[in-house]
Design a protein that fits this description.
Elements: E1 27-31, E2 36-39, H1 45-54, E3 57-58, H2 72-78, H3 85-88, H4 91-94, E4 95-101, E5 107-111, H5 123-127, E6 136-143, E7 145-146, E8 150-157, H6 161-172, E9 178-184, E10 187-194, H7 196-208, E11 214-217, H8 219-230, E12 241-247, H9 253-261, E13 268-271, E14 276-282, H10 287-296, E15 300-303, H11 319-332
Antiparallel strand pairs: 1-2, 2-6, 3-7, 4-5, 4-6, 8-10, 8-11, 9-10, 9-13, 12-14, 12-15, 13-14
């Protein structure tokens, strides 16, 4: 299945007849007062975000587009969430409902237009991140949020990885409106959003606690920084390199990075308040070995395809999780017709 083809580098190479969903477009309903939007999967993410912006609303899970042709269906199928995830939750936490065609050709509706919908199984949460392996999405219903009044970002320079991670973990636990916590080898960045006086006061509090060199960037520059980070414009692979992402406990990330350094880790960045590692690693590195390293550190790795073949795209699931996935696949797609082998062999 495809529409915008901006996520084609995710997942394993698979065979089959392509199913083009790019014509399945349109915003079915948008209720700003109810904070609910329903759209067809081929609708461009940029179109939906522009509509929400006109009502001073947004997707709080901050989805990356990774291309102008990105669609809401591909975003949901990959369960993609940006830097606000640690504060506002993942995409699947904002997915209120969905409609799909299953492997028997039957139309299924799951969830609804209200946040507290408890009728039946919460199948929509399973569809988020299933990479199109369980059925064909025909509608998605998502919660939107009021846009914060303003934002600003505090940069802290010159920290070691250990010190940066300690601050990130501590700041994420504080009752402040910090909605972005990332760091790389150069600096730590903390985004604060909300009413202007509160943003100023909270940034001043954080800055006063720091002895390291620091600076604050204002709203427009802050928005540009987080857009660039979210879209991975700062993590461009050179020849012989490819992108990876590893999600796991923030307390394990320093150890994971140390293990990956022995495998050729070059540029890196920590996102989700330390719960996500973006990395550039050699194309020649043994993917299966890197997945074993991830598993030893309680992390799950995604290998972004550098070519048409990506057989070890994801860290293998535990036995229990694999069995559950197989049960869902058999229930919704008993003949295995939807994107066979996209996630696992």
């Amino acid at each position: 299945m495809f529409a915008g083809c901006t996520k084609s580098f995710l997942g394993r190479h698979h065979e089959g007849i392509p199913l083009d969903l790019s014509a399945l477009t349109g915003i079915i309903s948008y209720e700003p007062n109810e904070l609910v939007l329903v759209a067809r999967p081929g609708t461009k993410l940029s179109k939906i975000e522009a509509l929400c912006h006109s009502e001073n609303q947004y997707f709080a899970f901050e989805p990356p587009a990774w291309g102008a042709a990105a669609t809401i269906g591909g975003t949901v199928a990959c369960n993609l969430s940006g830097p606000r995830r640690f504060k506002m939750g993942a995409l699947r936490d904002h997915l209120l409902g969905a409609e799909l065609i299953d492997g028997r050709g039957e139309r299924i509706r799951t969830g609804g237009k209200v946040v507290k919908n408890v009728t039946g199984y919460d199948l929509s949460k399973v569809l988020a991140g299933s990479f199109g392996t369980l059925g064909v999405l025909t509608e998605v219903c998502l919660k939107v949020w009021p846009r914060p009044e303003t934002q600003a970002t505090l940069f802290i320079h010159g920290l070691t990885l250990t010190a940066a991670l300690a601050r990130i973990i501590a700041w994420a636990a504080r009752p402040l409106q910090i909605t972005g916590l990332v760091c790389d080898a150069d600096r730590l960045a903390a985004r604060v959003e909300g009413p202007e006086p509160a943003v100023r006061a909270q940034l001043a509090t954080l800055r006063e606690e720091e002895s390291a060199e620091s600076e604050i960037i204002e709203e427009a520059e802050s928005q540009a920084f987080w857009r660039r980070w979210r879209e991975l414009e700062w993590l461009v692979p050179a020849e012989g390199q490819q992108r990876w992402r590893f999600s796991g406990p923030p307390t394990k990330m320093a150890q994971l990075m140390k293990a990956l350094e022995a495998e050729g880790l070059s540029r890196w960045g920590l996102d989700w308040a330390g719960g996500l590692l973006w990395a550039l690693l050699p194309v020649a590195a043994q993917a299966a070995h890197l997945h074993r390293i991830a598993a030893r550190h309680q992390a799950i790795g995604w290998r972004f395809a550098a070519d048409a073949h990506n057989e070890d795209a994801f860290t293998p699931l535990s036995t229990g999780a694999a069995r559950m996935n197989q049960m869902l696949k058999r229930a919704l797609d008993p003949q295995g017709i939807f994107t066979p082998g996209k996630m696992y062999a």
